[in-house]
Amino acid sequence: MDKYEVVIGLEVHLELRTETKIFCPCPTTFGDEPNTHVCPVCLGLPGVLPVLNKRALEFAVLTGLALNCDINSHSKFDRKNYFYPDLPKAYQISQYDFPVAKQGHLSMQTNGETRVIGINRVHLEEDAGKLIHSEDGLYSLVDYNRTGVPLVEIVSEPDIRSAEEARVFLEALKRILLYTRVSDCKMEEGSLRCDANISIRLKGETELGTKTELKNMNSFKAVQKGLEFEVERQIERLERGERIIQETLRWDEGSAETISMRSKEEAHDYRYFPEPDLVPMEIGTQIVEEVKKRLPELPQEKKERFVIQYGLPEYDAEVLTSTREMADFFEDCVKGFPEPKIVSNWVMGEMSRHMNAAGLDFCNNKVLPEHLVEMLEMLQQGRISGKMAKDIFAEMFSSGKKAEQVVAEKGLEQISDQGVLEGIVEEVIKNNPGPVADYRAKKKKALGYLVGQAMKATRGSANPQMVNAILRDKLK
Amino acid sequence: MKIEKKDVEYIAELARLEVSEYEKEMFTEQLSHILNYVKVLEELNTEDISPTFHVFPIKNVFRSDQVKESLSREEVLKNAPGQEKGFFKVPRVIE
Fold first, then answer.
1. CA of A235: how far to CAs of A200, A205, A232, A247, in Å?
2. pTM score, whole prediction
């Protein structure tokens, strides 16, 4: 309803793509046998000392830089205390008042408008283990493999104004994060997770309304759906003159509603205090400058550059820069075949279509930029027709063969040799006296039939424009 | 700062500690004493002194991102009160 304003802030947890855990040298591999990647440090056994993985810090700094944050030159870890069996130490090492990065922003496009969403902070912490509840509900099983996997938590400002905007924000954020390669951002494997805080207030009101926290959304669509439900639920309550109760809710995909997790009345009191087992970090200019070198051109700048440098339509630039790999593939192709729009059409069209159908992406499909370039050159030289090119590409895609090889093996090459085509045309004229007579009697349609006969005789490989010209010439 | 009995009860609850009535009285008094003792520090002017987060004057201790062998699962679960299929088995928990 129009008189209300929706206020949403998001918290995104991101597993960093390091080889080892944040404070110990156990591997971070996903999906292995339970409790095979644990050691005394991540189990929190007495007497052990955690030591920070330098790459985890660098990834957190990189994340901060990519989100236009200020890097805190003085940063430290804190203990967040709570009891839950996914946390063997009964505290999580996290960051409280001196996060690695703070006060950034992310710009995004929604409904043809640019929106800037504030980033409150980016901090480092350790992930918790995984619980499996037994079917009879009598006990739970714990796997500590994930315990201690490095996470960054990215907290947005409450600048998001609709459920849809929340989804767009997450998509934009994921695109940036994938560009930086700090995480594989797989929601289905839990390497990207999202919680949302949402409240409603009257338009023009400056105070925030009472918020609820929404958890358990397993896709960006689910985030949007969960928030849409919650917006409606809260507005209905307010309309009935009821108050919003501050609580944590779980989005239930099956019933498509939010369900209270009935957290205890006593709000979480984590009793943060500085982690005595880890020394503070001084993230000086040397570390920041080093990390900056690894900050790639980000999607927004790249998109703008593609429009200017390659003269591409906005839409093409947007699609091509949706991943860093796609953008790189495109640019590698243009280096060899400097016709950006033609390359763009192929990369966005055939290439993407085949990859989607096969469930592949630019990292693991068999067609390399030079392969596409070679095929496009053959097409440009008229050695193959546009239709053949599509068939040849399909073969290149499935077999990994080069265009030349496919053409040779299938005898697909377009016949563009004047002499050869003249011979074929003469044969067609000889065998089709009827249509030839029709054509000469000014029945122009007959020409199409004759061209078709020449194509048929060559199993589609004759250059149709040349056949056409030769036929006209010979039938004068 | 005065500690009251309900503060002790709250802290005990957070720490999952069972405290007798007698202990509640005792801790209320002792914790108040401790806080009063530390309060002396408040008299100092600390305006130009940066907070100490760690007692050692050391910063930036890192390790490189290199995998080392984890414990064997047998060893991991050796002291576990309960286990099943390689997992730790714990009483039912629903947050």
1. 7, 15, 5, 16
2. 0.85
